[in-house]
Amino acid sequence: MKKNALIFGYNEYARQIASQIASEYERVHIFILDETLRHQAESDGFRVSIFDLSDEWSEIEQEYHIENTVAFCTLEDDAHNIFLTISLRAEFSHMYIVALAKDTEGINKLKIAGANRILPIVQITANLISEILEKPVVTNVLHNILYEDSDIKISQITVAEGDSVVGRNSHALSLKEMYNLILLAIVDGKLDTNFVFTAKGFNHTISVGDVLVVIGLQEDIDRFNQEIKRSRG
Questions:
Q1: To 10 degrees, the CA torsion angle through 77, 78, 84, 85?
Q2: How far apart, in whole angstroms, are the C-alpha atoms of residue 143 and residue 231?
Q3: Is the pTM of this model over 0.70?
């Protein structure tokens, strides 16, 4: 049985998530705080409802089977997102809640608030989230990232002085063949921490300060990280 998705907020992150999961869910229902977001969400083909943080969630309780429903908390304001998570968890003990966090503090607070899975968005743009979800091989493991307590992770590895990858081209890393990892993107440390080269179709010479965004099993990520740092003096 397909799950239902309730997405709270409709920023670029929420929009990309909604568009990519639509075919995998029975229904995708967008909840917005601001009426000005309605037109965009409806134009994208989604059902839209207005809510506020004081809601008692009677509409959700009456319409959806909670154990077969996933809530995505993607509000722009961190405090609102945390309060929303607390409110949903208090009302629905069996609902699966996925929340976006901007930093470590947000991650910790969302864990306490009751989120089942937290996706950090530091240094990851909405376009990168879209590309993550669009990659066929990543789609196969996305369920595990969101819903299972598995070792599959999205990880960011900062390249330091002396690492063996410094000066190498990204295409020459052979991450898939040697480590069973997928290189999603590279954040160029020389330009701006928000400037992301997606891995698709781009061959980047890796420098100190670059951030490699990879996906794979935690043990493979750890092995790659350890091996590139062995050459440090």
A1: 150
A2: 36
A3: no
